[in-house]
């Protein structure tokens, strides 16, 4: 059993790394599922059981973290930041940003101070937890094989 | 007062596979490979670095920890939960990246220009995250 969990975790990590690398691209669940060697539905469930959130939510938080970085450290406009981190619509970007941080991109930019954290640590430690997220009762009761 | 950092460790789930990776692919050299009976004391180091500074490739398991605990450790490492494990430097990050890529090393990002230099990251076969940077020259 353990070896199966270990191998599954390792494959999910490979898919998560792919999202961290290609966060500017559209979320391609079938492609990520192929990296993880599982079918798409199984991928979403297993990813959530492994990392505590869905691939979609993981990617949103990654993009918002990268957007926070660009808002903080560069002079790009909010629209440019939106496009650079992989959102195709300003409305979706602003809504997602606000859903996760509780404030708009421009409000964040006003209060943010540049960070000196190396990028690899920033990506790990500054990826925002949603202020709306409630602790979930230990997720995912059963995983159906597919 | 302490005067040196001499040994660090990473957990590896298979020491032979770890040797293939750290020596065969990353180009480290074996410092010690000793059968202590209760454990295989396996260390590697960067060629040319302080010869005393070694990385212990430690296998989690009995008798140091019970089988269940070792299983949990392996599962956590496999999902990347060991965090940042090893940071190396190089004279040429782009060239080293290409060399590692050609050897089939799993690279996660980069090479990217950072305020402190050029760096990239990768994972060992078990899930540990290592980084390589080419520091800015003064």
Radius of gyration of chain A from the CA trace?
16 Å
Number of strands of chain A: 0
Termini separation of chain B comes to 30 Å
Helix content of chain B: 10-25%
The termini of chain A sit apart by 18 Å
Radius of gyration of chain B: 16 Å
Q: Tell me, what's the shape of chain B?
A: globular
The tally of strands of chain B reads 8
> How would you spell out the order of helices and strands of chain A?
HHHHHHHH
**Low-confidence segments of chain A, ≥5 residues, pLDDT <50?**
134-145
Class per helix and strand makeup of chain A: mainly alpha
> Strands across the major sheet of chain B, in which order?
1-4-3-2
The averaged pLDDT of chain B comes out at: 95
Tally the helices of chain B: what do you get? 3
Low-pLDDT runs of chain B: none
Alpha-beta classification of chain B: alpha/beta
The major pleated sheet of chain A works out as: none
Averaging pLDDT over every residue of chain A, what do you get?
A: 87
List the secondary-structure elements of chain B in sequence, H or E: EHEEEHEHEEE
Supply the number of helical segments of chain A.
8
Q: What kind of sheet is the major sheet of chain B?
A: 4 strands, mixed
Q: Could you describe the 3D structure shown?
A:
The complex is a heterodimer of chains A (146) and B (138). Chain A is mostly helical and 146 residues long. Helix content of chain A is 62%, strand content 0%. In chain A, helix 2 (29-35) crosses helix 3 (40-51) and helix 4 (55-73) crosses helix 7 (105-111). The longest helix of chain A is centred in the N-terminal third of the chain and has 20 residues, at 2-21. In chain A, 29% of the residues are buried. Mean pLDDT of chain A is 87; it is low at 134-145. Chain B contains three helices and eight strands, in the order βαβββαβαβββ. Chain B has helices at residues 15-25, 67-78, 93-102; strands at 7-11, 29-35, 40-45, 54-58, 84-89, 106-114, 117-123, 129-135. In chain B, strands 1-4-3-2 form a four-stranded mixed β-sheet. The A-B interface holds A 2, 5-7, 9-10, 12-14, 16-17, 20-21, 50-51, 116, 118-121, 124 and B 13, 71, 74-75, 78-80, 83-84, 106, 108-109, 112, 114-116, 119, 121, 123, 126-127, 131.
């Amino acid at each position: 059993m353990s070896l199966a969990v270990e191998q599954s975790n390792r494959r999910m990590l490979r898919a998560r790394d792919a999202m961290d690398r290609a966060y500017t691209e559209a979320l391609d669940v079938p492609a990520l599922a192929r990296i993880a060697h599982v079918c798409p539905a199984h991928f979403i469930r297993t990813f959530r059981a492994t990392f505590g959130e869905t691939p979609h939510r993981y990617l949103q938080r990654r993009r918002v973290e990268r957007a926070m970085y660009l808002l903080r450290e560069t002079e790009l406009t909010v629209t440019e930041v939106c496009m650079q981190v992989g959102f195709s619509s300003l409305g979706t970007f602003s809504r997602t940003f606000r859903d996760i941080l509780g404030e708009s991109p421009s409000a964040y930019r006003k209060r943010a101070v540049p960070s000196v954290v190396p990028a690899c640590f920033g990506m790990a430690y500054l990826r925002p937890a949603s202020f709306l997220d409630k602790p979930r009762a230990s997720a995912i009761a059963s995983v159906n094989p597919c | 007062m302490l005067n040196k950092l001499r040994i660090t460790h990473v957990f590896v789930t298979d020491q032979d596979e770890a040797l293939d990776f750290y020596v065969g692919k990353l180009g480290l050299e074996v410092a010690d490979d000793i059968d202590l009976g209760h454990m295989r004391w396996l260390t590697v180091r960067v060629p040319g670095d302080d010869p005393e500074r070694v990385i212990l490739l430690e296998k989690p398991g009995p008798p140091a920890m019970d089988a269940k605990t070792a299983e949990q450790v392996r599962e956590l490492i496999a999902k990347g939960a060991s965090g940042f494990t090893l940071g190396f430097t190089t004279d040429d990050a782009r060239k080293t990246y290409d060399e590692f890529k050609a050897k089939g090393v799993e690279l996660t990002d980069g090479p990217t220009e950072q305020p402190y230099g050029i760096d990239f990251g990768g994972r060992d076969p078990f899930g540990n995250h290592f980084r390589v940077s080419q520091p800015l020259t003064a």
